[in-house]
Amino acid sequence: MTAVDIEPVRQMIMAGEWGDRRVFLEFATTQPECLPIVAVDGGEIVASGVGTANGPAGWIGAIFVDERVRRRGIGRAVTDAVIAGLEQRGCQTLVLVASEEGKPLYEGMGFQLQTAYATLEAPGTSGSGVDDGAVRPFDPGDLEVMSVLDREATGEARGHLLTRLASPESARVLVDENGGLSAFTIRPPWGGGATIAETEDAGTRILQARRAAIGPDRKVRAGLPLENRSGIRRLQELGWTRSWNAPRMIRGEPLDWHPEQIWGQFAMALG
């Protein structure tokens, strides 16, 4: 996929009621670690997919096939092409988030169900009860510590995403009582929020600060692996409600990760 493909891919995806993905596609086609793919039939783009190489882990996502040509193996061909590209870049672990309809396809390709992300949502608040003094805008000097926290939590090398997407406008960090950075959240321009926290208290506080920042007329979402049971329970006690689960599937070497430290994602094609 190149820049000239973005608009036809956008139109194809919108016709399939997946929403407007233009901003994400612009990112994927300009980020060296991303591998955006299109399938062409008779000169017309009929499918797309995106891979992202995060060091040892490669993410596969945004696999979309035009409804007119489904059940012809095109979706698998696109997925195979993304996988091949990620493996060429040295990814020994492949990760994806599947729909229930897509699980059988991926199981046939050697992926196994690892866990699931519980998506929770909550309305914004007026800001009462939030320790705003502990949460501040991102500073470029935070990047090194954020990268260490992120690598420990995910087992991946996502510094390229942090570097590209973190800014004082898009990111917030939580500073503990000793002045150390214990959590961060980054809001990419297409929505969502990658959130990493060392402890349950840190994760809860930075997500509650997000609620306060958006105000009572909007909602905020967070995706926690099921292993983060106490975090899920804590958020529910604070008024968050579970909306759906998204299966996480894996193929290849296991990752050395800490899912209890993960509280949100960049996107399902990025991690």
Walkthrough of the structure:
- The chain is an alpha+beta fold and 271 residues long.
- It folds into two domains: 3-91, Gcn5-related N-acetyltransferase (GNAT) (Aminopeptidase, 3-Layer(aba) Sandwich); 118-264, Aminopeptidase (3-Layer(aba) Sandwich), CATH 3.40.630.90.
- The protein has eight helices and twelve strands.
- The strands form two sheets. The protein has a seven-stranded mixed β-sheet, sandwiched between helices. A five-stranded antiparallel β-sheet has the order 6-7-8-9-12, sandwiched between helices.
- Helix 7 (200-214) packs across helix 8.
- The longest helix is centred in the first third of the chain and has 15 residues, at 74-88.
- The protein is globular.
- The protein starts with 5 loop residues before the first helix and ends in a 7-residue tail after the last strand.
- 42% of the residues are buried.
Provide a brief overview of the structure.
This protein has 271 residues and is an alpha+beta fold. It contains eight helices and twelve strands.
